[in-house]
């Protein structure tokens, strides 16, 4: 019971009466004929770490730039903490942005870079030095205060940029691909640091990223963007397990998609016939649809089981609560990633699917290898029915 | 997906280094061997060409002029005595410092130097004041318009410099375009005296040297990272503050380059003060000309030139030093 109470507390978007901190209404930005951001409406709550996720050119950076006033919306409105942002210039907004390139002033040292925003606010000398020292401590850069940006590593620059944006205590901190320029190892460490800083200060973060793993690991909620539109908003698990379209399913993680149509509809399950596999797929959860409607059945590679030996004691295929489906195939290719392996399997009908398996054993011989005939099975309930 | 490795048994890997392939090229072998045999790399060859150019066309004339400045004037052809002699097995070298001494004695030279530096300094400031906004505007213009504006800056170079200075005489003289216009409009009754004043010299210099200020400034400003300006605005700086605290300090290398390109040639400028300036416009270029062609005193003229060079070399070296410290500074 206690657990659900906490969960409810930290997820304001589940409460109907909660007032959103940032409110975007029908926001559109056109560049000539091209619509970079197309009719986006979005509510972000106080102290959220919200990720805008999408490929390059999907409009996520334009959306971020509109939030801090570097772009003017073509139509629609932005409201931050109850205040309409229309006509408020960038230097007057309660937002600060951290640029992808960091945009550190090359002619100022770390300390002066960080103090820049405070000087503009006419903060007193003593307070500036106090706050700069404080934030330098937070990002662990105290001994680098006198260095110029050109004398810093990529990770250090990233932290200076973060400190410079944070020191002004913005109501909203906007981060444009904050970790993209770092190498993988450093990126993973910095992710956790970023989340820790966000939780310590309680500032609302809006992060733009193209890296779905990054978005999954740091955010409270993700907004997936495609072609200027916000196509799905949800918690990381929601987005991954219950994508609402083929695009989202394919963009977040990898997925096997069986195209087909509904051939039977019952109260607690539907049956999908797919010409790509010679079985009828039973899905136990209710989907509003009609007979003969074209749909896709999507299942993640890790949710398909695989063995060289014929599996015994499997539940009955016909059990609508837990419908187990069996397939046979031949291993076409193997990708060894260390912790897991990815297998490309050609099914009997010629359809190609992907299956991943954790490498539980260190011994090489026990592995499934090239050209092995394998038995595959999955639970119809672990897949998703996609109608769009 | 690059995660998939082919069955290792199917595709045996084949490794070959790029460097070894380069060595197999025939020309690399030939030049490589010839150069490394003589102790010279390809790099040395590349550097040798500009070094040779500077030796022949800059250092050699400099030493010739320096040599003449230490000799004595004579009514002869050339109009100076040789610096060294070889007579009866005796090599005699005579260095005449009298020319330099003469420059110190006569206040004319001293005044001319100071006046030249003053005119060069003021016109550099004026050129910068006119050129900076122009360079800034061109750098900020959209790319199609930008090329047209740059063309317009370079366009005057297509006509002779001398012609363009003459054209200013037509504009500034007593019955020139400006005076005629003002009189016909009834704004003035008597023509303004503009020609043969310092004003005309400044107009001529600013007009002539403006492209040399604008082009390096433009090159600097156009490379300015826009996200720096956006960051400054985002951190609360109003537009003019963004300019003062980010654009201006970051364009200092462009300002220095442009100012040097204007200041240095203006110090020795001859044509503009000769054509537009009056008898009171004393500049070292004019003095040099008089010594060389009217007085035919080549040694004194050379001494004037060498002193001018020294005066200019000192600030150039100091500037380069400060520039170097600024760029490769250590903590």
Major sheet description of chain A: 6 strands, mixed
Please mark out the parts of chain B with pLDDT under 50 across 5 or more consecutive residues, or reply none.
8-19
Task: Please give the CATH class of the largest domain in chain A.
Answer: Alpha Beta
Spatial extent as radius of gyration of chain A: 25 Å
Structural class of chain B: mainly alpha
Distance between the termini of chain A: 37 Å
Structural features, described:
The complex is a heterodimer of chains A (388) and B (331). Mean pLDDT of chain A is 89; it is low at 1-8. Chain A contains nine helices and 20 strands. Chain A has two domains: 20-249, 3-Layer(aba) Sandwich (Rossmann fold), CATH 3.40.50.300; 254-386, OB fold (Dihydrolipoamide Acetyltransferase, E2P) (Beta Barrel), CATH 2.40.50.140. Chain A has 388 residues and is an alpha+beta fold. Chain A has helices spanning 2-9, 60-67, 110-120, 125-138, 154-166, 184-201, 212-218, 236-241, 246-251, and strands at 22-31, 34-44, 49-53, 75-80, 83-84, 95-98, 172-176, 204-209, 221-226, 229-234, 256-265, 270-273, 280-283, 294-299, 305-307, 324-336, 340-347, 352-358, 373-379, 384-386. Chain B is an all-alpha fold. Chain B has two domains: 38-93, no CATH class; 106-296, MetI-like (MetI-like fold), CATH 1.10.3720. The longest helix of chain B is centred in the middle third of the chain and has 34 residues, at 107-140. In chain B, helix 5 (107-140) packs antiparallel against helix 12 (252-267), helix 9 (198-222) runs antiparallel to helix 12 and helix 10 packs antiparallel against helix 11. The model of chain B is unreliable at 8-19 (pLDDT under 50). In chain B, a hairpin with a 2-residue loop joins strand 1 and strand 2. Chain B starts with 17 loop residues before the first helix and ends with a helix. Chain B has a two-stranded antiparallel ribbon. Chain B contains 15 helices and two strands.
